Amino acid sequence: MIKGMRTVCYPVQDMDAAKAWFTEVFRTAPYFDQPFYIGFEIGGFELGLHPGEPGMAGCVAYWGVDDIEAEVERITTLGASIHSAIQDVGEGIKVVELKDPFGNTLGLIYNPTFDLKKVR
What we know:
Elements: E1 7-12, H1 15-26, E2 32-34, E3 37-42, E4 45-51, E5 62-64, H2 68-77, E6 81-90, E7 93-99, E8 105-110
Parallel strand pairs: 1-4, 5-8
Antiparallel strand pairs: 2-3, 3-4, 6-7, 7-8
């Protein structure tokens, strides 16, 4: 039985620079830090960094936020660029795609109907 999303991994060429950047973006230090993998606990899920070539691999993970405009402004000042503008996709839900400094797509979502209690 599939229980749901647990981990999102991003390939990066510079593990130290990526660790510093993601620590600042997500405002938390990694709980696991080895040359082959760096793991962050983000709201009950895992963000992983591993050595590799960045680039779009066919899907985008969207990280939940309370204020999408403020987070886009904050994260772009940290070095990300806007890949696609903030879009209202209905029901008050807004999404945006950013490019991190390492070439990966970082999605953000504001979803007022998301119920964290349903996450298992």
